[in-house]
Amino acid sequence: MGFPKNFLWGGATAANQYEGGYLSGGKEPSTLDAITGGSHTTSRKITYKTKEGKIESVTREKSLPTGAIGYIDPEQYYPSHVATDFYHHYKEDIALFAEMGFKCFRLSINWSRICPKGTDKVNEEGLAFYDAVFDELLKYNIEPVVTINHFDIPMYLADELDGWSNRKVIDYFLFFCETIFKRYKDKVKYWMTFNEINFLRSWTQIGIHDSSLQGKYQAAHHLFVASAKVVKLGHQINSDFQIGMMVAYIPSYPMSCRPEDVMESVQFNREQEFYIDVQVKGYYPAHKLKQFEREGVVIKKEAGDDELIKEGTVDYIGFSYYMSTVSSANPDKVKFVGGNQMPAVKNPYLEESDWGWGVDPLGLRISLSKLYDRYNIPLFVVENGFGAVDTVESDGAIIDDYRIDYFKKHVAAMKDAIDLDGVDLIGYTPWGCIDLVSAGTGEMKKRYGFIYVDLDDHGQGTLKRSRKKSFNWYKQVIATNGEKLENN
After folding, report:
1. What gap in Å lies between CA 153 and CA 482, rounded to an integer?
2. 10 touches 434 (CB < 8 A)
3. Which SS3 state, helix, strand or coil, does residue 90 take?
4. What Å distances lie between residue 62 and 40, 127, 148, 247, CA to CA?
């Protein structure tokens, strides 16, 4: 019993939060390169130009006006431009991952590093960079797990084609995927199409200017078609490829046994499961079609789209799990707190992180059980973690017992899901295994890693890497295949 012998222990990152190398090696800007830093209390801003050439900014949660284009202001600080500089430190970092005993490493490929404008022009220097990264991983027998698209799009496609609102982007994305599938077909086995597809809704993530329900769901349809085409293409190029989807999963509990509260939780959970239903079951669920009728949303499809989505279902479900939330039919009883890319409702039975995220290890077992019962295909926990302020002691030590406690309970929950619920779980890649820029706020002080990176919220620091106490704890967990969880 316990974790399978071939269980993929590792860690997860994203290019826009970790890689850096802005405009290095032939890369051109992506949408996320136009987002400034923020803080616990202030929002990140998108800088852009209007049609008239006027420079404006807006919070990243909002869409840009029609026709507006992304703009990099030389007076602003943009965390993605250096991030924590994997671009220049990949050998050092991968050696540290190997020291921890990683069996896999989840990273994303920056689309605008391979196809600078997102079109059909290929940048050989960008391809060579990832060749070097994969070779370094494989040298240590670390399996690359690649997210093809993680929360961004080449800025040219956003500015000139209105991003995923435009069906032409499907073909450009397919060209990008064919390029990397053929190039890395003997180096990468595990792929995921779109990171947290249920959160793709704005100019920053998918390049769209219309974030109405019609605009959001039309873009989502294009993403579904693209994913299905990519799955089929990947299997043609290498039948051993395992190509999954990725969703942010935040289970919602009813605030009470009042039926209205239960129905609210059903509706909340349905919105996440909709994205899984389409990519795993291969069709739009009835409740979503009814919503479209009520809201006047009309999805424009081409002939064969439904058949394509049915044929291009994924091999596994990758998902992030950080927290749970609560649903209530009575808005007066709802207290919103911080959450992963969305406001969550405070659960009085849970402790919270410094950023207001409810800590719910049992929620991970609940999520694994629900997802496996519903879909019956392999699962992969590709993000999970605890953002906190770490203190460097005078002797250089970083004593992050709070992080160890969080992970210990979540690993135990996964073990229960395997042993007691029969869940088929592929692996576990904690988020930000090395410190990186927070996606939500652009901060560095909100740290997740087992490895500390000397960098502050303003981009100042040496970028020196240091092992935290959790580094050796996770090394022990991997070495014992999840059997030894004590914090020594």
Report:
1. 37
2. no
3. helix
4. 18, 33, 25, 21
CATH class of 8-479: alpha beta
Residue 68 near residue 48, CB atoms below 8 Å = yes
pLDDT tens digits, one per residue of 444-454: 999 999 999 99
- Say what the pLDDT of residue 344 is: 66
Can you give the pLDDT at residue 354?
82
DSSP β-bridge partners for residue 425: 379
Q: Among residues 34, 38, 64, which one has the least CA distance to residue 338?
A: 38
Q: Which residues are catalytic?
A: 383
pLDDT value of position 61: 72
Q: Is-contact 153 114, C-beta < 8 A?
A: no
Q: How far apart are CA 479 and CA 416, in angstroms?
A: 19
* Dihedral Cα 69, 73, 74, 79, nearest 10 deg: -100
Q: Beta partners for 452? A: 466
Assign residue 380 a region (left: φ > 0; alpha: ψ between -120 and 50; beta: otherwise).
beta
**Number of Cβ atoms within 10 Å of the Cβ of 443:** 21
In degrees and rounded to multiples of 5, residue 325 shows phi and psi of: -140, -175
CA 374 to chain centre: 22
| Residues 317 and 245 sit within 8 Å (Cβ to Cβ) | yes
Residues 222-238 have pLDDT tens digits of 999 999 999 999 999 99
Rounded Cα gap, residues 477 and 236, in angstroms:
37
Structure tokens at 462: 């040496």
For residue 47, give the H/E element and its range.
strand 45-49
The average pLDDT across 462-487 equals 97
Structure tokens at 31: 């949408």
β-strand partners of 244: 192, 316
**The total number of residues written for the chain in this structure:** 488
Cα-flanking dihedrals φ and ψ of residue 38, to 5°?
A: -140, -155
Q: Could you give the residue ranges of the DSSP H alpha helices within 240-315?
A: 259-276, 286-295, 305-311
Task: Identify each DSSP E strand in 159-292 by its residue range.
Answer: 190-194, 242-248, 252-254
